[in-house]
Amino acid sequence: MRHAQLQQIAALDNSEDRGIVAYFSMEIAVEPTMPTYSGGLGVLAGDTLRAAADMGLPLAAITLAHRQGYFRQHLDASGIQTEESQPWDIEALLTPQSPTVTVKIEGRPVVIRAWRHDVIGVTGHTIPIYFLDTNVEQNDPRDRELTDHLYGGDGDYRLRQEVVLGIGGARMLEALEYRPVVYHMNEGHAALLTIALLEKQLFGSPLEAADEKTVESVRRRCVFTTHTPVPAGHDRFSAEQSNRILGVERTKVFERLGCFHDDLLNMTYIALRFARYVNGVAMQHGKVSREMFPDYKIDAITNGVHAATWTAPSFQSTFDRHMPRWRQDNLSLRYAIDIPEAEIEQAHQDAKSVLIAAVKERTGVELRPNIFTLGFARRAATYKRCDLLFTDPERLVKAAHDFGGLQILYSGKAHPADEPGKAKIRRVIELAQELDSADLTIVYLENYEWILGALLTGGVDLWLNTPKRPYEASGTSGMKAALNGVPSLSILDGWWIEGWIEGVTGWAIADHDDDAGEAGSLYDHLEQVILPLYYHQPEQWKRIMRSTIALNGSFFNTQRMIEQYVLNAYFPEQRMDHSAAALEPILAR
Ligand SMILES: *Cc1c(COP(=O)(O)O)cnc(C)c1O
C-alpha cells in the first residue's frame, strides 16, 4: 500500500481518540459456530474483517445479535424444505459491554446493548465486532425480539431492525467512545446510520434545519457498497411505515432529500444520497449499478475471499512449504505457478477425500475419488438456475456414460418465503433420483453453510455457476474454489468476467438469450473440453489447477480488496491527483 495511506492509517490507530473505520453490516459470518449470516453478503463481511485484522487496519464492526440465527434447512426424501431456527449461546461466545443506548421506534423507546467478539489477525491485531441486542428487560416484548431473526418477519420488522442497526449502531459506537472517521455501509440495510449522524450534526436543532451543508458534513464520512443488481432487491418501505416507525420528522427530511422513489422510502437512495463514495462489487456490477442509478457516481471494487479461511488444510500445507508468507501477503500466491504438478494433484486428492468422507457421513452415499466431480452450491434463488444443468438430462446421462462416470454435488437453501426457489430444489432432488445410475451420481446436501461451503469448494474438480445475466453482482464461491485449484465453468457474469481465462482458469458458458442455448454451451464444454481433459490429459488438467491458484487466488482475495477500499474509498484524499487543475499550483511555483 502506498506510503501516504499507511501514514494515515498509523495516525488513526491511536487508541486515545479511537479514530476508526466503522463497518456496518446486517450479517457477518464470524465463526462457523455462530449462525449470524445467511450467505454471500455475510461471508464477504466476515472475510473483509479477517483481512482487515491481518493488515492491522483500525476498524470496528457493527451488526445485530441474531439470537435465533438464520435457519437450519431440512430436506425430506421428496425435496421438501423445512426450516428450524438456530438459537445460539451468545452469552457463552461473546463479551457483554456496559454502555446501552436508546432509540425511538414507533414512538417507543428501545434500549440496545452490545456484545463484543474480537477478530484477531495473523499479526495479532484485533478488530472488535459489536453485536447489538434489544433483548433487554425494560423493552416492550415486541421490541425484545427485534434482534432475533436474520431476514425474518415482515417489512415492519425489517425497518425496525434497520433502525437498531443504523441509528442504534452509530450511537453505540459513540457510547463506546469511538470517533469514526469513515462509516462504511455494507449494503443499504445500514443506511439509517446517516440520519443518526445528521441528527448529531444538528446539535439538538430539529431535522428540518438540515441544509446542504449539514448533509455534506455527513457525506464526507460515509461510504456505501451496493450489492444488488435488481431494483426489487433493494429495501423499500411505504410512507406510512416510515411515518409510523421512523417518525414524521425523519420521513419529511428523507422526502426532501430525494430518498423516496415510486412513493417508497428506498434504503439504497438514502445511502447513495449520503455517501461520498459508492461502489459495486465487480466491474460489471459497477456498470449495471451506474445504469440503475444514473445520477450517482458509482465505482467498482471486486469482491474477494479471505485466503487462509477458504484454503483447504492440504493446500495450506502446500502453500506453507512453497510461499511461507502467503497468509500475510496473498500476492505471493502468484508464485504457486512454480509448485510441482504432483504436489498440486496430491493436495487436491487429499481435499477431495475429506469431502468424500463428509458426504458419506452426511448421506451414506459413497463417492469415488477418481471420478470427475462437479459442485454447485448457492442460494436457491431462481435467477441462479440450479436446474440449468438438467435442461437435457439425456445428454448429461450420455456424457457420464461415455467418459466412465460423473458425480454432481448440490447444496443450497431457499429463503423460507421463496416458493419458486423451493420448487427448484424439489426439481433437482427429483431428477437426482430419476437419473441415478452406475455412471451418474447426484447428491443434494442439506443445510448449506460455511463448513459445507469450504468442503465443497475445496474438494470438487469443477465449480459450476449458471446465473442469469446480469443478476450475479459478484459471486464469491468460485473464488474459494480457485484458491484450492478448482477451475470454474460459469456464465460470464459478476467476478467471472474478470477471472476467466479460457482453458487457464476455467471456462465460460457462451452468452445466449435463452436457457436452452446456454445449457447447450454448458454441455458442449463438458463433452468436448472438460471431461476429455480430466480423463485423458491429466497432466494438462493439473496445470490448469495450478494456474487457477496462481492467477485467481492471488487476486480475488479480501486482502487485495481491502487495499482497494483503503486507496479509493476510505482515504482517497491521499490519492495522487494528476489533473491539470491540481497541477496548476505546483507548475506555477
Ligand atoms: C461463499 C458462500 C456464499 C456465497 O457464494 P456465491 O458464489 O455468492 O453463491 C454463500 N453461502 C455460503 C455458505 C458460502 O460459503
Describe it:
- By secondary structure, the protein is α/β, with parallel strands linked by helices.
- It has two domains: 3-300, Glycogen Phosphorylase B (Rossmann fold, 3-Layer(aba) Sandwich); 307-556, 3-Layer(aba) Sandwich (Rossmann fold).
- 43% of the residues lie in helices and 17% in strands.
- The chain has 23 helices and 20 strands.
- A nine-stranded mixed beta sheet has the order 5-6-7-2-1-8-9-13-14, sandwiched between helices. A six-stranded parallel beta sheet has the order 17-16-15-18-19-20, sandwiched between helices.
- A hairpin with a 5-residue loop joins β3 and β4 (81-84).
- The protein is globular.
- The protein starts with a helix and ends with a helix.
- Mean pLDDT is 94; it is low at 582-589.
- Pyridoxal-5'-phosphate (PLP) is lined by residues 39-40, 43, 378, 448-450, 453, 475-477, 480.
Summarize the structure.
With about 600 residues, this protein is of the alpha/beta class. The longest helix is centred in the middle third of the chain and has 23 residues, at about 340-365.
Q: CATH-wise, what's the superfamily of the largest domain? A: Glycogen Phosphorylase B
Query: What small molecules does the structure contain?
Result: pyridoxal-5'-phosphate
Unreliable runs: 582-589
Largest sheet: 9 strands, mixed
Total number of strands: 20
How do the strands line up in the largest sheet? 5-6-7-2-1-8-9-13-14
* Coarse structural class: alpha/beta
CATH class of the largest domain: Alpha Beta
Instruction: Give average pLDDT, whole number.
Output: 94
* CATH fold group of the largest domain: Rossmann fold
**What percent of residues adopt helix (DSSP H or I)?**
40-55%
- Tally of helical segments: 23
Going by CATH, the architecture of the largest domain would be 3-Layer(aba) Sandwich
- Distance linking N and C termini: 30 Å
- Anisotropy-based shape: globular
Number of domains: 2
- Gyration radius over CA: 24 Å
Share in β-strands = 15-25%
